[in-house]
Amino acid sequence: MTARAIPPPRSRRTSGQFLLLPLVFLLLLGGATAGFISYILWPTWPRAPAPLYAPAIPVTVAGILFNLPPAAIRAAVQRHPGTHERIDLVFLWPSLSPPPTDAKTPDKPVAKLDGDAVPLRPSAGDRLFVTIAGRGAEMLPAERLRGIYPRYVEARASAGPDGLAILPFRSGTPYQGEDLVYVADQPEQFFARCTRTLGAVPGTCLYERALEGAEITLRFPRQWLENWRNVTAGFDRLVARLQPQGG
């Protein structure tokens, strides 16, 4: 047998390279898998808020679509389109426009409503605060009127302005210090819970409306009850304005 018949010995270096190939493949596969999982689970950074002067942005609350002007959104963190658990807004009354974005803007009329000039920078008593949130398992406002509030009110109501009735809540109840104000002969037409004026602190009212799975809460000065019919009409216009056309 000649020397050529004997196969040459396999290089250790070549053999080691073949053994490393599966290990390298597994490492690459594991890295790709970890990167994909990290990308899916990594928390997203909050989006930059829309500028105050930007046009209305689409916002969804409890499955309901709204078009909201960024200047009316009170918290900067809420000024971006998309889905929100709740949105807090503020509007001037009676123009129903967002408050001015420049505090240095001079006081002068900018709009007219029924012939009356609306000041550009009104006082705090001329602002309407609005909250839109999911209703969840809470009862409808009309159900609370009939099923909850009667448990905590006094026995007799007093007459209020323009056909309203004022029924105080009893002390020691969840609503102590408040009054239930409603249309005497048709409570479902309008009703609100109002705090009483205490010294220099004016009373405020909460008026709630259900909109499918969402609830809209409007907070306004109690003195507006003197003209509650125009107030509810303004609320109708505002709610219609905040929804897309045909929404």
Secondary structure blueprint with pairings:
Blueprint: H1 12-41, E1 57-61, E2 64-68, E3 82-84, E4 86-92, E5 109-113, E6 116-119, E7 127-134, H2 141-147, E8 158-159, E9 164-168, E10 178-183, E11 191-195, E12 204-211, E13 214-221, H3 228-242
Parallel strand pairs: 1-3
Antiparallel strand pairs: 1-2, 4-7, 5-6, 7-13, 8-9, 9-10, 10-11, 11-12, 12-13
Q: Which descriptors would you attach to this protein?
A:
21% helix, alpha+beta, 29% strand, three-stranded mixed β-sheet, 247 residues, 3 helices, 2 domains, elongated
Describe the protein's architecture and organization.
By secondary structure, the protein is an alpha+beta fold. It folds into 2 domains: 11-41; 57-242, no CATH class. The chain is 21% helix and 29% strand. The protein is built from 3 helices and 13 strands, in the order αβββββββαββββββα. It has helices at 12-41, 141-147, 228-242; strands at residues 57-61, 64-68, 82-84, 86-92, 109-113, 116-119, 127-134, 158-159, 164-168, 178-183, 191-195, 204-211, 214-221. The strands form 3 sheets. Strands 4-7-13-12-11-10-9-8 form an 8-stranded antiparallel β-sheet, with no helix packed on it. A 3-stranded mixed β-sheet has the order 2-1-3, with no helix packed on it. Residues 1-6, 39-46 and 103-122 have low confidence and may be disordered.
